[in-house]
């Protein structure tokens, strides 16, 4: 494959891109509160003379437009941070208490801006239009639908979509899943109703907390059963009871149900329902369960997978490019884009050397900024080659 950009061109912008990332990390903002972040993005794009607009309060859509006869390739970049205290010791640690970029979105925005700068410099050579979607509220699963509702996929109509993530679980490299990439995410709400009494008269009550404990054991059992593809059910919150000497009459639990195949989701719900009926009879309680699909799975387009792997192998060493066959149990609301547009999801690995790599959503999460030139080059080349193949 003939290269569109040179290493020197990317190296020239790296100090600026690193500075952007560190500034965003220092001043993170939560979902739908990314006002400063969007202002910085708009300022950078405007200085490049790239048309842009703020949509849905904090989202930013920008377009390098060449011709209506050309296809339009979109690159998504999430903007929001998480409600986590930054416990790192470094110059760019978050200055906002209880808010942190613990999922790499600061780096994703910086990389996307680097791609925008390089492709704007090359705009006269492009055989496509390039749309940049700086998406708010990805962490709460609402950003993609907000941008879709604001017609971000129109004017010009997006023909292909690229999304990417950063992970620090492996040395510098990348992975693309062969087929399904992320899971279907369902919310799980459980309400256990018992009958309160004084603990001195246990025979007069029905203990909702005890029933809840049995419910959690049933969830663990159903989750651990072997299936064709990975799946999980987990409880994230549990609340019940009012006083130490009163038998609890209700417990509320919330959790997640993650699968890749509809039959697995249905089987897990059936398994839970059967076990809950037994628990109700045994404990003289009632268990109500509500399951709501929040995010569909992401399926990578096979042609984009093939092109992405080939380009990745030209950028990285071949041994550092993985064609994944095991999908991630994480979810991504970008699946709503993929329901309308063929797309591909890439994970760039960026483990730091000789130090502990704390995982995503950890208060000490960080990544190796040396991934920036590789990611920028891969994305620039992929965008340009997709346009030719389209």
From TrEMBL:
Protein origin, superkingdom: Bacteria
InterPro entries associated with the record: Amidohydrolase, Bact_exopeptidase_dim_dom, Peptidase_M20, Peptidase_M20_dimer
SUPFAM superfamilies, alphabetized: Bacterial exopeptidase dimerisation domain, Zn-dependent exopeptidases
Pfam families: M20_dimer, Peptidase_M20
Start and end residues of each Peptidase M20 dimerisation domain: 185-267
Name of the molecule in the record: Amidohydrolase
Species name: Acetobacterium fimetarium
């Amino acid at each position: 494959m003939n290269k569109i950009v040179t290493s020197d061109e990317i190296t020239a912008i790296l100090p600026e891109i690193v500075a952007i990332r560190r500034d965003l990390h220092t001043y993170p903002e939560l979902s739908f509160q990314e006002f400063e972040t969007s202002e910085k993005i708009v300022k950078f794009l405007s200085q490049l003379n790239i048309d842009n607009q703020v949509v849905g309060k904090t989202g930013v859509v920008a377009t390098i437009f060449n011709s209506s006869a050309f296809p339009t390739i979109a690159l998504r970049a999430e903007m929001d941070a998480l409600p986590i205290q930054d416990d790192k010791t470094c110059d760019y640690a978050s200055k906002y208490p209880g808010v942190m970029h613990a999922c790499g979105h600061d780096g994703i925005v910086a990389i996307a801006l680097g791609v925008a700068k390089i492709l704007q410099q090359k705009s006269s050579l492009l055989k496509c239009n390039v749309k940049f979607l700086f998406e708010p509220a990805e962490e709460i699963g609402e950003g993609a639908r907000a941008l879709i509702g604001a017609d971000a996929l129109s004017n010009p109509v997006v023909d292909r979509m690229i999304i990417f993530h950063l992970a620090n679980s492996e040395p510098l490299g990348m992975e693309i899943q062969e087929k399904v990439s992320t899971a279907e995410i369902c919310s799980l709400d459980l309400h256990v109703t018992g009958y309160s009494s004084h603990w001195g008269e246990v025979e007069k009550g029905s203990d909702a907390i005890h029933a809840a404990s049995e419910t959690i054991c049933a969830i663990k059992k159903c989750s651990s059963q072997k299936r064709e593809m990975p799946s999980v059910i987990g409880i994230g919150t549990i609340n019940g009871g009012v006083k130490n000497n009163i038998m609890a009459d209700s417990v509320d639990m919330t959790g997640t149900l993650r699968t890749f195949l509809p039959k697995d989701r249905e089987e897990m719900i059936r398994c839970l329902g059967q076990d809950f009926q037994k628990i109700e009879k045994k404990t003289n309680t009632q268990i109500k369960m509500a399951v709501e699909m929040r995010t569909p799975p992401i399926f990578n387009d096979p042609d984009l997978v093939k092109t992405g792997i080939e380009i990745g192998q030209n950028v990285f060493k071949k041994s550092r490019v993985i064609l994944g066959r095991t999908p991630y149990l994480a979810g991504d609301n970008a699946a709503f884009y993929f329901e309308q547009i063929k797309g591909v999801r890439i994970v760039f690995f960026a483990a730091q050397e000789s130090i502990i790599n704390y995982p995503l959503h950890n208060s000490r999460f960080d990544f190796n900024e040396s991934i920036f030139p590789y990611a920028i080059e891969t994305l620039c080349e992929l965008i340009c080659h997709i346009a030719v193949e389209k």
